[in-house]
TrEMBL record:
Principal place of residence: membrane
Family affiliation: Belongs to the membrane fusion protein (MFP) (TC 8.A.1) family.
SUPFAM superfamilies linked to this entry: Single hybrid motif
Compartments in which it is found: Membrane
Protein name stated in the entry: Multidrug efflux protein
Membrane-traversing stretches: 7-27
Organism: Dictyobacter aurantiacus
Positions of the p-hydroxybenzoic acid efflux pump subunit AaeA-like beta-barrel domain: 134-225
Its membrane topology: Single-pass membrane protein
Key words, A-Z: Membrane, Transmembrane, Transmembrane helix
Amino acid sequence: MRRMIFVPILVMVAMLAIAGGVFYWFYNNYNNYQTDDAQVTGHILSVSSPQAGQLTTMSVKLGDKVTAGQTIGTITTVPTTGTGAAAAAAAAKPATVDVTSPIDGTIVQVPAVQGQGVTPGATLAQVADLSNLTITAYVDEGAINNVKVNQDVDVTIDAYSGTTYKGHVQNIVAATAGSFSLLPSSDNASGNFTKVSQRIPVIISLGDNGGNNIVPGMSAEVTIHVH
């Protein structure tokens, strides 16, 4: 008798649990958009050689903090050839050119070596502004209509999965991610077109880093509160 009563109760509890799970799934998906197709992004600028010559000094190394306008190296230019006494005098005195950082930031790459020859445009160092990082999340085109500027966002970074960072939608890029690809996903010229769901880059502000060493390129997950 007790078993006959207990079995219907178990069935009822199971049905309620399933109904509760389905309700939570619909409720969560209505209020939030979640994706793990996201990463930390930031401004990384290359410091290039303005002229041909020799890299006489290189005064920075990986991890150094620099300020805008700070000299990070010097180049001794190659004397030019020309005609006349003035040109000969100029050619006899190589000039020294200072190489400066364009922004406040941190040196993240130094491919150049002191003493090497350089050409115009050669990358000497790369500097990143780690104080102004953002998250770039790729949102499915079917959900982009629900995403608006200034919506609140919860961010988790794979390297620091126990920490949730607060942010908000800063900008919605006016083009799909595929528009920036070097290899198109379809061959329209041949007439063979395969429809593929596109993703829209959404730029999300990242607040306080919580003391963690967050750097561009790290993988992230975002939850956008769309309702």
